[in-house]
Design a protein that fits this description.
Two copies of one chain form a homodimer. Chain A is of the alpha/beta class and 431 residues long. Chain A has a domain at 6-13 and 67-110 and 233-427: Rossmann fold (3-Layer(aba) Sandwich), CATH 3.40.50. Chain A has 16 helices and 15 strands. Chain A has helices spanning 51-58, 68-74, 86-92, 113-125, 139-150, 161-166, 168-176, 190-198, 206-219, 232-252, 267-281, 299-302, 345-352, 363-377, 383-402, 420-427; strands at 6-7, 17-19, 63-65, 82-84, 97-102, 130-135, 154-160, 180-184, 223-225, 258-262, 288-294, 304-309, 318-323, 356-361, 407-412. In chain A, the strands form four sheets. Chain A has a seven-stranded mixed β-sheet with strand order 1-4-5-15-10-11-14, sandwiched between helices. In chain A, strands 8-7-6-9 form a four-stranded parallel β-sheet, with helices on both faces. A two-stranded antiparallel sheet of chain A has the order 2-3. In chain A, a hairpin with an 8-residue loop joins strand 12 (304-309) and strand 13 (318-323). In chain A, helix 1 (51-58) crosses helix 10, helix 3 packs across helix 14 and helix 8 runs antiparallel to helix 9 (206-219). The radius of gyration of chain A is 20 Å and the shape is globular. Chains A and B meet through helix 5, helix 7, helix 14 and helix 16 of A and helix 5, helix 7, helix 14 and helix 16 of B.
Chain lengths: 431, 431
Amino acid sequence: MKTTRKFLLPDHQVPTAWYNVLADLPTLQPMLHPQTKQPLQPVHLEPIFAKGLIEQEFSKERWIEIPEEVRTLYKIYRPSPLVRASGLEKALDTPARIYFKNESVSPVGSHKLNTALPQAYYNKIEGIQHLTTETGAGQWGSAISIAGKHFGLDVEIFMVRLSYDQKPYRKIVMQTYGGQVHPSPGTTTEAGRRFLAENPDTPGTLGMAISEACERAVTRPNTKYTLGSVLNMVMLHQTVIGLEAERQFEMADDYPDTIIGCFGGGSNFGGISLPFFRHQLAGKATFDFIAAESSGCPKLTKGTFRYDHGDTAGLTPLIPMYTLGADYEPDAIHAGGLRYHGAGAIMSHLLKENIIRAVDVEQRRCFEVGTLFARAEGIIPAPESTHAIAVAIDEALKAKEEGKEKVILFNLSGHGLLDLSAYEAFFNGKL
Amino acid sequence: MKTTRKFLLPDHQVPTAWYNVLADLPTLQPMLHPQTKQPLQPVHLEPIFAKGLIEQEFSKERWIEIPEEVRTLYKIYRPSPLVRASGLEKALDTPARIYFKNESVSPVGSHKLNTALPQAYYNKIEGIQHLTTETGAGQWGSAISIAGKHFGLDVEIFMVRLSYDQKPYRKIVMQTYGGQVHPSPGTTTEAGRRFLAENPDTPGTLGMAISEACERAVTRPNTKYTLGSVLNMVMLHQTVIGLEAERQFEMADDYPDTIIGCFGGGSNFGGISLPFFRHQLAGKATFDFIAAESSGCPKLTKGTFRYDHGDTAGLTPLIPMYTLGADYEPDAIHAGGLRYHGAGAIMSHLLKENIIRAVDVEQRRCFEVGTLFARAEGIIPAPESTHAIAVAIDEALKAKEEGKEKVILFNLSGHGLLDLSAYEAFFNGKL
């Protein structure tokens, strides 16, 4: 392999199609209608989603072409670099070679823009004017705000109150991009008022914020809902990450055996792993796929596989997934993007089939490795991404113990420049 | 020209040498010793600077080789992208083609790392253990903190109190990288105590912070001072920006006629303009070079050309420069990096000779164009960089009025993710 530090592809190598793993998997258990409990039909999703996105949600086509308008905007920040973490390797004194896909270079600071752009696009071409959504740490809310702006759509965001208070700068980012932000639960929706009546001091959850955003989408004219993770179509859009990484490993003359991503609803982990997984399906390679979740919200390691709602009020379909229960209130961790009670259907299926495995990481350890990474590589990672870094470090140290070569790839889902109050709390011994 | 959005060079095209404009200029007026007022000799700087850096400060060699250790670290984030600002062009409906060099992709968020790395390196190889410096907005302090960490040096930073209070996240960045940060003026130096005695409520200035950092360097064993702008050697290091841009314009099959940078001490403007200026010297091209300064600290447009100290306490040499006076207290603008009373000797010479020109921009206008740029290009610019954007927009609109083609290049010196409180103040009508 080469000793280059980062591997860059030119603009024109932004992928032209997303990879749809549903083409290569046995048919998954269907989503169920929240009232009838019957298999969900595409038409049932029309009140909240654009038709182009619903079609992708149910599609079994292996490759789905990326619309040129979306690809043009991808080129603002994609292809993202594949980076050899030489500084981290040196700090760990490991024989493992560690690479990361640096999604933090996106203008909004995370991988979320990869799905925000197509979601805004398909709504735009169907004549929608307003988008609603939820956000945890605010990475998704920032992404959909600028994506909406690119396509001339208004965006209204319900931000989990805990993050709204912890991360004031995130709110300003969304506002700078023209987004309108409410703390959730709040008093502008019926669902929000109900959650507040039950527990006026609740820090909020992604499940509650989804309920509020869905309610707004169905009650306001010309408005649709958008979602930053969990759904099949979101995994689909995020496959640009892994597809680029594949070509970049060719440039590096190397190949990963271990692929790691942090895990909230599954989209950044799916985005980096599914394109490699198709080679495993074809019998051409095998990988150790590791999902890194928070011990404060351990749906993969401590949850159960069953049907559950995606939101707390029970407005969304029932999804076959690993879940801690739609009313689960996760710890008040700073990794707001990992505070989701369930895992998307595709990633849940892969876990049930032992194709991927999961590890949960405790918050203090995350900030320890986040600081180590910042000092070794220069980039301050998002609290979510530190979970992947922790597992990558564990694997690199295991390789050292066993005297083995190992090639680790992890997804640096975002930077932590808007989460610095969390680092400060860590330095001051307040975590 | 091509319609590509961004132009990327591979790692191995990181320049191998810096361009030293002093080789191509008539001998400038010398710096003077602060006590004797006699021309400064290299040996006079040895108490505060590493010898390798002093040599560069006085060098007349045209090309100075970049040490391999520095070049390896440059490759973490360089070459930086040259970006066609298609979104901004569209928003302005201008016939001008606008490009920007995106220095905000550096892990510390600005161009400052380009000189922080060599400054740390030359100190390291001379056996120094501790570095001191001043910082305004904190971009420079962040850069020298991680540069010090890469070379195993401690870093102590005197941060202008106004920015220390306005930008709390910047302090946490420096701490995450292992830097030690004091608000300036403060009580840990004699100079700081004197400034406080004179005015206990002073918001501080870069001039005061430089006095504190220099005092610490000469009073603490095995310690040297570092500086983020003004000096010849800093202009030198920053020429990597323009040298890369030259090659990227070849890729774009285009060429700039107007080159713009914001102006604090001159290093980011010098970095992008000096490499192009050498072609003007050789009679091969002519450019409109425009320095964009703050109306709250207008040394170029309202200052006078004379000898003045680089700091407020008069510890530094006398520099032949445009200055507002070393005891000038600039407005409390959010663009902390532009709150410096003087301009470096090279850029002052070029202004005096009418080779460059200067424009000053008012703060509210800066945040207006910063917001416009964020919505058009997705990147939230640093308050400093918005000055360059404002002038680029003026030039693009002039081209539209005159129905002329024009090719504008500006330097996006950094992102504004740690300056969001300033954007919030702007949105709330508090600027």
